[in-house]
Amino acid sequence: MAEEEEPSRPFLVMGDIVHDLRLVDFPEDWASVDCRRREAYGCGVNGDRIVNGLTLFMRAGPDDDPDLYPRLCIRATDQVYRCVGSEIDDEMAEIYGRAIRLFGNVYSVAGDVMVICVSFLARHDSAAFRSYYLVYDSAAAALFLLPRRPDDCQPMCTTFPLKVGEDKYSLVLMAERSIPGGCTQPVLLTWSPPPAASPDSRWNCKLDTTCPWILKPRARENADRFSASVVFLWKGSAVWGDLGQGILYCDCGDLIHGPGPADFKCNMLPSECRDSDDTDYADQAPKHVYRSMGCVGDSIWFVIIESSYDNPGETMVKVWTLDRLSEEEKWNPHREFKMQAIWRLDGFREKGLPETAVPKYPMFRQQDDGVLYVLLPEPYPYTAGGAYAHLVGIDFSSSCDVMHLVANRRLSIPWMHRPVFLDPYFFRRSRQN
Known about the structure:
The protein is mainly β. It has five helices and 28 strands. A nine-stranded mixed beta sheet has the order 3-5-6-2-7-8-9-10-4.
């Protein structure tokens, strides 16, 4: 990317959707992301053509500018569309044609690594015709294309890969592998980026269909019942968080290098926060809209927003903490407050924050010990230019006797499925080899 002024914001906030650059307004306002190394592994004969024809673009304008707010897009060359379209069965192509559309989602950002799910959509199939993980390593300015999974495996718990390690890292997924006799075997899928220009034969799978994911046995410990919305590392352990059940965790060393099956353990949420077997999700928002989990300082925090749209001031926010990973360890109540208590904090009314809003998308940053971030949507009707919300930071760390506001940013959010926090330097870092 071109050099920019020093960031005035400690982090960027953007949606997880990665649109096709051909479909956005003002494409001249976007900067291409620096990429010096592009490689595809196990993606078939077209893998190299696809990864070499994909370019990421970033826009990092003012938060509240409806034309320039932070956003990520992707562009594919005509050759990419032709390559993917050529894989459509001739009979299907005769009826529906070979037109292809491109779509993406940011699945995770950890350190220098962003994982994007890139999908190519065809007219004959409601599901993605081809789908890959696109891994961008900002420190190495490298872009890797991977298959979503081996053909004989199905992801379990979540499709969000977990990054383990720093400079030498691995991506990890939980999965079930089909084995003869109609049974399944619980496994872990791991992938590590090879050294640049490696002569090692086990990495020479770029132009064939050899799957780059390495399979490792894992113990079958409740993963079938879990649907993780968050994945993170904490004190040497890998953690998968189900916002309606609890957490699965495993020692990182055992996860990657252990000689036997990875041993997972489970810690359940407080009983009043757990889903019951007869919970009906049909008319409910996705759990991450009103719940979150993550590491904050020396603890794992879990937050739940009990919304009250008829009376937003009565909306209850509850926070629990977990100080040690153990199956017997209990979650401790940390804070509980109504939104009307936030309205009375110094600066709330002075900053023009909406008192009619039910908070959404609770979020944490490990760098901001004791701070809970939420989005407060501005009331309808939308103001000129689209929809807006305020990102508010509420500090109730143990060192504070009373809560206080520590952040307020007005964001332009035409539509958001899952907010992504991004270091403003993310696309400018480079690692010295």
